[in-house]
Amino acid sequence: MLTVRSLLVLGLLWAVEAAPQNRGGRGGRNGGGQTAQTAQDQAAQIPQGISQATDGSTIVDTTATINGLDIRFKISGPADQFTTASGVDGATQVAGAQGANGLNVLLHGDGGQSFFDMPNQAVQGNLMGVAVLAPDPNLFWGGGSGLDRTDGVAHAQAVNDLITDVLPQMMAFNSSNVFFTGVSGGSLLLSGFFVPAHMTNFKGNGVMLNCGALTPQVNFVDADAVMASTRIHYQSTQQELTLLQPAIPEAIQTYEQAATAAGLSVAQIGQLQTVDNTPNSGHCEFDGADFVNGVQLMANSYAAIMQGGNGRVDGIGSVLNPVPGNENLQFAAANKRGMDMKLKI
Hints:
The protein is an alpha/beta fold. The protein is built from 9 helices and 15 strands. It starts with a strand and ends with a strand. Residues 21-54 are annotated as: Disordered. Keywords: Signal.
């Protein structure tokens, strides 16, 4: 059952840490002796409901309970593609109906910045946008800290079940055309847990892993079929975070090995798996300067990269470098720009 929580709180200001972080204590006290709010507590004060996307689409921001976890999500698309049960004016669809458009499901970085920005809110390449908020006190996808995502199995299952069981109650979409975007910690959840465990349900589509990647942390289900049909692009920067500089190439090599084991040729792997870390900038700063704008740049370029386009990204050029021969990414010294930000609502 879906529940919309509209809490009228304005002017909220809190620190968002977009890079993979070490988990802080829960329920600590601030200088006034009061229990400090978690990032999840603060996010709960931001109103949910219905709003308009940058392209005129309708955005519904709501929460569903999935496997005992409260999963807040946004889904964006033309009003007439929502189901009549969604509460959207102009909705025409019935639950479970197949639509012409697919989905681009985004998992944010640690702290939730990209959930609230929703850079994929505009329909692009016949993909409607979905953004999902991590069900974790610190808003870390997979929980835990750093590269150790202790709740990855449960979180990946919840994302899978959101798409297969909950979203069809909200929107008519083509269930055979579901793509994914990860940002930082969201990329860790996708590559480490979701792709190996659940991509079998979304074969023939693709995953963009921005500024983060992990080797599979769970058994790979239906690996040969997934590797033979799944498009994966790894996007990083020269000054990537120190803890991610070895992790990303390790993930690239492991997924390439899985494709080789599936019987794919070098040329076939190069078509399906691509990589780039050209921008000489910090974590997720794909535009060369800023985290938020950098993530938006990649979202704007999604069709060009993931759906058969020319791979060109403004300010970078083509990012479609085949993984074979480019597995061992070379990085410069990391910087910390883009890690700590303030989000104003």
